[in-house]
Give the backbone structure.
Amino acid sequence: MSTEQLIDSLKRVLKSRHVTYAVLAQRIGMSEASVKRLFSQRTFTLNRLEQVLAKLARGAGDAPEEMTEPQESALALEPRLMGVFYLLFNDWQPAQILARYELTEAELTKLLVKLDRLHLIELLPANKVKLKVGRHLRLRPSGAIRAKHGQRTMADFLAVEFDRFGGNFRFEFRDVSPASFAVVHRKLDRLAAEFNELAELDSTLPPDQRQSIGIVLGMRPWKIGQITNLKERPRMRTTHKDAGD
């Protein structure tokens, strides 16, 4: 069966079960747009299509989406352990890690054993691994990794000129209403989700066809006085009596 035939068969199965793209997207934790894009790309090899579908199915499980405090603390205290977990989370295999990074097999095995004891992975025979965390894993907002490495990592990320590395950086500030603030907030959340969805689809590619990309999303109230030395006058409080005059 060709790739096109397989995709068409999958579409027929979904249709026969009255499963729309929107419903499928909700079940596997992806956006409807990403699901449509997956089925419209007919350039997949059969092997890659099988890998992608397997990953989509894997993303629908009940694995935790946040590490425990002890898990984060262990990673924060040992940078190489954190680095190996990051690579495994991005679907690197131990053999690929050994080929790219300066680690001996004994050192890597020791790190894998630690990750297994932390219940972040399941270490299988021949140093194969299975993740025991969700595909949309997030760091704890006030966890040990952010506390120990957050500021230094952010400073290092923002220190370079983005355009020199093919990146894009913009800082915009305008006066907007609370309603507009909420709209942009939702769009940022959706962009972050789509970024992770694309990374999940691309995780079937070999490591030499991928690169680590950082993306910073954030917004908050911000006053121009921080850079202009303009100080606001104290605001007058309106009393009920004043309002009625």
Q: What stands out?
A: DSSP finds twelve helices and two strands in the chain. Residues 121 and 132 are 5 Å apart (CA to CA). The mean pLDDT is 80.
